[in-house]
Write a structure and sequence with these properties.
Shape: elongated
Strand content: under 5%
Distance between the termini: 180 Å
Oligomer: single chain
Number of domains: 2
Helix content: over 70%
Largest sheet: none
Mean pLDDT: 83
Number of helices: 8
Length: about 250
């Protein structure tokens, strides 16, 4: 029995090592998949179907996050992949964000259906296939369930999400530029007002100086007038006295 234990244990170890390698490959592969995903589409990051409900999305997040968790995965970018998964899960939990994504995805589906409707409108082969399938609705349901159509849907969704993001960024840039322009206008207005206030203060100081100078000038003129008047009065007063002395002398 002791002799048999060695080979059996060795086989178990080999099997365990094999499954460990498979797990490592699966973890590395999931990190690679997440990092390669289109980052504006949280469904793609979580590898979830577009019509998945909250519970299915929760399971998809749990499955992917367990594979790429930095504590379990040795991939150097495991933390980045885990953060992307966490954000994607949070985005789909956010009602407003999920509504925006769902609306874009639904529009992508509408565009593809319209394109196909126009393409098969006069296609006799399509009409024949629809008749054999039990109607166009059944044929279209099978077509939309195909992996080829799902790939087209993802591609169209990516195209529309990119376009929407580009518009948002352009709008954000315009808003930022407008805010910057308004800030500059306010700054120029404030500087202009400050300059006007300073100029007014300078004018007020100058006015006071001019008024003071004028008052000094007027006071000087008045003093001169008073001195002239006093001098004239002194001269006038001196004449009668001189005449009296003259008469007294005669």
């Amino acid at each position: 029995m002791m002799a048999d234990a060695g080979p059996s244990a060795s086989g178990d170890d080999a099997l365990r090592d094999f499954f460990n390698e498979v797990k490592v490959e699966a973890r590395v592969g999931e990190v690679t998949r997440v990092l390669a995903c289109f980052r504006l589409n949280p469904y793609d990051i979580l590898n979830a179907a577009y019509d998945d409900g909250p519970e299915a999305i929760r399971r998809a997040f749990r499955k992917a996050s367990l594979l790429v968790h930095p504590d379990k995965c040795t991939h150097p970018r495991a933390k980045e992949a885990f953060e992307l998964l966490t954000k994607a899960n949070a985005d789909l939990k956010d009602e407003a964000k999920r509504k925006d994504v769902d609306a874009t995805i639904a529009h992508a589906l509408h565009v593809l259906r319209e394109e196909r409707r126009k393409a098969v409108a006069k296609d006799n082969a399509y009409q024949a296939a629809a008749a054999l399938k039990g109607g166009a609705a059944k044929l279209e349901a099978d077509f939309e369930a195909s992996s080829g159509f799902r790939a087209q849907w993802r591609a169209k969704s990516r195209e529309l999400l990119l376009e929407l993001e580009w518009r948002r960024r352009r709008l954000g840039k315009r808003l930022a530029e407008e805010e910057e322009r308004e800030a500059k206008d306010k700054q120029r207005f404030a500087e202009s007002n400050k300059k006007k206030v300073a100029e007014h203060k300078d004018w007020q100081r100058g006015r006071e100086q001019r008024a003071s100078s004028w008052r000094g000038f007027v006071a000087g003129v008045q003093k001169k007038k008073k001195r002239k008047k006093a001098k004239a009065e002194a001269v006038v007063g001196a004449v009668p006295k001189a005449a009296q002395h003259h008469r007294a002398a005669v």
